[in-house]
Design a protein that fits this description.
The protein has helices spanning 4-14, 157-165, 204-214, 229-242, 259-267, 304-322, 378-381, and strands at 21-22, 32-33, 37-38, 48-49, 53-56, 70-78, 92-96, 108-111, 115-118, 122-125, 135-136, 147-149, 172-174, 178-184, 188-189, 200-201, 218-225, 245-249, 268-274, 277-278, 282-290, 293-300, 334-339, 343-344, 351-361, 364-369, 386-390, 395-396, 401-406. The protein is built from seven helices and 29 strands. The strands form eight sheets. It has a six-stranded mixed sheet, with no helix packed on it. α1 (4-14) crosses α6, α3 (204-214) packs parallel to α6 and α4 (229-242) crosses α5. With 411 residues, the chain is of the alpha+beta class.
C-alpha cells in the first residue's frame, strides 16, 4: 500500500496550473487572480460626504450646541451624482447627500440628525464639528498606483467589488478547471427504466458532479459507459479533448472485468494505487496527452462513498492546484473537534476517514459518527458534513479531540 501523503503528493506534483485568461468580472468569483492589480485612479475619485447633512465651514459652527444652535443660510443642495456647483461661503451651508462631492469652501459635514430647517433657506445646526468630519477624501480608500489585490488572491465577493471600484472589468485569473465526470459499468442504470437482474441505479455521477461544483470547479456530466473497451476508450478520449480534467468512477480495482485499467494504461501515463486509507483504498491517477497538453485523469473506486471520499481527499488537491490555489488552500479545510462519543478504530495499517456530523456546541465543534459507515451506504453518508481522521489504531474515546476534514460548511 502507498501512504495517503504519498498518494496526495503524487497527484499534486503532476497537476499543472491552468493558463491564465481574462474573464468577465461576473465570472471571476471563486477563481485565483493571476497578476497584481494596480489601481489606475483614486478611490473615491473626489472628496465626498459620508453622511446626509449640511456641508459647512467648521469655524462657523464652532459654538453650536443643542441649547444654542447656530443658524446658517442654505445656499443650495448637492445630490450624489451632481457636480459641486454651489460653494460654501462664510455664514452659509449647503444641503448635501451621502456620496455627493464636497463643495468648495466646506471642510466638514454636520449630519442631518443635528439640524432643524427654518423656513425655505435657513437651518439651525446643533453640533460643533472638527474639520474633516464626515468627509471621505479623494484616494482615502485606494490611492492611484497602489496594489489593491495581489497575484494568488482567491476572489471572493468583496474582491469583485474592489476590482469594480478600480475599473477592472476583465481580470486575468487562473480559471476554474472544467471537470468531465463519467462512470463505467454494465450494471448501471440512469434513465429511469425498471432494473433487470444484476442492475443498480447510477448514483456516483450525480454525486461527483455536484461535489465538484460545491468544491469550486466547473463540472459536466458525461454519462455512463458500458464495459466495452472501445466505448470506454472513445469516452475517455472525448472527455480529455473537451475538459481540463477527467474523473471516472468504477473499474480501478484488480478485477478481471475492470476494463478501465486496460484502456487507461493504453491512453495515459497512469499510476494504480492501493492507498492506506479506509474507505477509498483503490485509486488511480495519470495524465493523458492531448493536443491541448496533458489532461489529468482521476480513477475513483465504484462504491459511492469511496468515490466521494476519494474525490474529496485526493481529487480536490489536484484540481485546486490546477485552479491556481497553493499551500494549505489546496485541501478541504480541517479543524479540531471533540468527539461526542467513542469511535472505534482498527489496527490494519490504514487511516480511517469516518463520516461524521459536526456541529457547534458551547463554544466548540463536536462530532458524532453517522449511522452507517459502509463504503456502499450513501444514505448515511448524505447526512455527514465532515470526515473524522482516525489514525491506524484503537480510535478515539468520548471527549477526545479529533481532526476533521470539512466536506461543507457545518455551521
Amino acid at each position: 500500500m502507498i501512504s495517503f501523503a504519498d498518494a496526495r503528493r503524487h497527484v499534486v506534483e503532476r497537476c499543472d496550473r491552468l493558463a491564465p485568461r481574462e474573464v468577465a468580472l461576473t465570472d471571476a468569483l471563486g477563481t485565483v487572480l493571476a497578476h497584481d492589480v494596480v489601481a489606475p485612479e483614486d478611490v473615491p475619485p473626489f472628496a465626498n460626504s459620508g453622511m446626509d447633512g449640511y456641508a459647512v465651514r467648521s469655524t462657523d459652527v464652532a459654538d453650536a450646541t443643542e441649547d444654542q444652535p447656530v443658524r446658517l443660510r442654505v445656499a443650495g443642495t448637492i445630490a450624489a451624482g451632481e457636480g459641486p456647483h454651489t460653494a460654501v461661503a462664510p455664514g452659509t451651508a449647503v444641503r448635501i447627500m451621502t456620496g455627493a462631492p464636497v463643495p468648495a469652501g466646506a471642510d466638514a459635514v454636520v449630519m442631518v440628525e443635528r439640524s432643524t430647517r427654518v423656513g425655505d433657506d435657513e437651518v439651525d445646526l446643533t453640533q460643533a464639528v472638527p474639520a474633516g468630519l464626515h468627509i471621505r477624501e479623494a484616494g482615502g480608500d485606494v490611492a492611484a498606483g497602489s496594489v489593491v489585490l495581489t497575484a494568488g488572491t482567491f476572489l471572493r465577493p468583496a474582491h469583485l467589488g474592489v476590482l469594480a471600484s478600480v475599473n477592472v472589468r476583465t481580470p486575468t485569473v487562473v480559471p476554474r478547471p472544467l471537470v468531465g465526470v463519467l462512470s463505467t459499468g454494465d450494471e448501471l442504470v440512469d434513465d429511469g427504466r425498471p432494473l433487470a437482474p444484476g442492475q443498480i441505479r447510477e448514483s456516483n455521477r450525480p454525486t461527483l458532479v455536484a461535489a465538484c461544483r460545491s468544491y469550486g470547479f466547473d463540472a459536466v456530466d458525461l454519462g455512463s459507459v458500458p464495459d466495452d473497451r472501445d466505448a470506454i476508450a472513445d469516452a475517455l478520449r472525448g472527455a480529455a479533448a473537451s475538459c481540463d480534467a477527467v474523473v471516472s468512477s468504477g473499474g480501478v480495482s484488480m478485477g478481471d472485468f475492470d476494463l478501465v485499467k486496460v484502456v487507461l494504461d493504453d491512453l495515459a501515463d497512469m499510476t494504480w494505487m492501493q492507498v492506506a486509507i479506509r474507505p477509498a483504498k483503490p485509486f488511480a491517477f495519470g495524465v493523458m496527452a492531448t493536443d491541448r497538453g496533458g489532461v489529468p485523469v482521476f480513477g475513483l473506486p465504484g462504491n459511492p462513498v469511496s468515490s466521494l471520499v476519494s474525490l474529496s481527499l485526493l481529487g480536490v488537491p489536484g484540481l485546486r492546484t490546477m485552479a491556481g490555489r497553493t499551500g494549505n488552500d489546496v485541501d478541504l479545510p480541517a479543524v479540531i473537534a471533540i468527539s461526542a462519543q467513542a469511535i472505534d478504530g482498527k489496527a490494519d495499517g490504514r487511516t480511517a476517514f469516518v463520516r461524521v456530523r459536526a456541529s457547534w456546541d458551547e463554544g466548540g465543534v463536536v462530532v458524532e459518527p453517522v449511522s452507517a459507515q459502509g463504503s456502499h451506504q450513501l444514505v448515511a453518508t448524505s447526512s455527514a458534513n465532515a470526515l473524522a481522521v482516525l489514525p491506524d489504531g484503537d480510535g478515539v474515546r468520548a471527549g477526545d479531540p479529533v481532526m476533521l476534514v470539512l466536506l461543507h460548511e457545518p455551521f
